[in-house]
């Protein structure tokens, strides 16, 4: 039995879809705070259990009988370490044979402030003694493609990544990698640095957008504070705006570049290209 935490989220759902291609539905557990959000999965035979990162008693119940658990990192920045600790302790109590964790690309040395909580979580997992595998995920291409509509409207794609190269991949690529690891023997002790096969700058992304849309779009590099301010002005919550601006600065320092191609090796095919994903957005 494999338990996927955060299963109602974008990544969690994709992991479950990938697992359903390989396992009977009743061997998969969707662990969520709100079961009604995954009623469609329940209808397909997936076990649905209540699991809240801040309520340890729900985690103990959710992990009962589990062989493997995928801890998808919490979205609540600043509260992640305490929440993750609860999951790790519950996995240890359940005696799971493998705990997989979605960390950040090169979390041990990442210049992104986002890396701090991932480093702490990895340390907690190591100290727990639970057999584990770390999936250090790079950037999701979707993070940048969400800005395509305003970029087309304004003729400008904004950011703070400078000339930093970004080795992003589709969220579905990372989900497939997680499913692969969860269904492959002898994964304990491994650390995967997962990123896209190709790397691009944001200027390159803007050029690709211009090429495919037929509309001129330039890249404008902004100071971190100005970029964050604009993101807040267009309606993003301040913590999200801070995260995106800080991450772009991290990207400018090489924090989102990786050329080891471990992701494509793991999933057995090339990662989904920026050009291909942009086509989907522009349709």
The first-level CATH class of the largest domain is given as Alpha Beta
Helix proportion: 40-55%
N/C terminus separation: 39 Å
Query: Helical segment tally?
Result: 13
Strand content: 5-15%
Briefly note the CATH topology name of the largest domain. Answer: Rossmann fold
The global form is globular
Looking at the chains present, what oligomeric state does this protein adopt?
single chain
3D architecture notes:
It is a single chain. The protein is 45% helix and 15% strand. The strands form two sheets. The protein has a seven-stranded parallel sheet, sandwiched between helices. A two-stranded parallel sheet has the order 7-9. It has two domains: 136 residues, Rossmann fold (3-Layer(aba) Sandwich); 107 residues, Alpha-Beta Complex (UDP-galactose 4-epimerase, domain 1), CATH 3.90.25. Helix 5 links the parallel strand 5 and strand 6. It is an alpha/beta fold.
What's a concise summary of this model?
The protein is an alpha/beta fold. It has helices spanning 10-20, 39-43, 56-62, 80-94, 115-128, 141-145, 148-154, 171-182, 202-213, 224-233, 238-252, 262-267, 274-282, and strands spanning 2-5, 28-32, 47-50, 68-71, 98-104, 132-137, 156-159, 191-194, 218-221. Helix 4 packs parallel to helix 5 (115-128), helix 9 (202-213) crosses helix 13 and helix 10 (224-233) runs antiparallel to helix 11 (238-252).
Fold blueprint:
Elements (H helix, E strand, L loop, with lengths): L1 E4 L4 H11 L7 E5 L6 H5 L3 E4 L5 H7 L5 E4 L8 H15 L3 E7 L10 H14 L3 E6 L3 H5 L2 H7 L1 E4 L11 H12 L8 E4 L7 H12 L4 E4 L2 H10 L4 H15 L9 H6 L6 H9 L1
Parallel strand pairs: 1-2, 1-4, 2-3, 4-5, 5-6, 6-8, 7-9
Helix pairs in contact: 1-8, 4-5, 9-13, 10-11
């Amino acid at each position: 039995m494999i338990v996927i935490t955060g299963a109602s989220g974008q990544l969690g759902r994709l992991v479950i879809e990938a697992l359903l291609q390989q396992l009977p539905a009743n061997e998969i557990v969707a662990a969520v705070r709100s079961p009604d959000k995954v009623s469609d999965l329940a209808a397909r035979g997936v076990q649905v259990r209540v699991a809240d990162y801040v309520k340890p008693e729900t985690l103990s119940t959710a992990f009962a009988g589990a062989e493997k658990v995928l801890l998808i990192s919490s979205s609540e920045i600043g509260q992640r370490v305490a929440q993750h600790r609860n999951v790790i302790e519950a996995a240890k109590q359940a005696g799971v044979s493998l705990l997989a964790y979605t960390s950040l690309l090169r979390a041990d040395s990442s210049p992104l402030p986002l890396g701090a909580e991932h480093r702490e979580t990895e340390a907690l997992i190591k100290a727990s003694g639970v057999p584990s595998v770390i999936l250090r995920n790079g950037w999701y291409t979707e993070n940048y493609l969400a800005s395509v509509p305003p970029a087309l409207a304004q003729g400008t794609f904004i950011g703070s990544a400078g000339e930093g190269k970004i080795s992003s991949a589709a969220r579905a690529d990372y989900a497939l990698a997680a499913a692969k690891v969860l269904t492959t023997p002898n994964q304990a002790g491994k650390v995967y640095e997962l990123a896209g096969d190709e790397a691009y700058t944001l200027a390159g992304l803007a050029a690709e957008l211009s090429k495919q849309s037929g509309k001129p779009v330039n890249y404008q590099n902004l100071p971190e504070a100005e970029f964050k301010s604009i993101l807040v002005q267009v309606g993003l919550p301040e913590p999200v705006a801070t995260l995106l601006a800080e991450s772009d600065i991290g990207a400018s320092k090489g924090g989102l570049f990786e050329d080891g191609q471990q992701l494509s090796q793991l999933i057995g095919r090339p990662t989904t290209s920026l050009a291909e994903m942009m086509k989907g957005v522009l349709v």
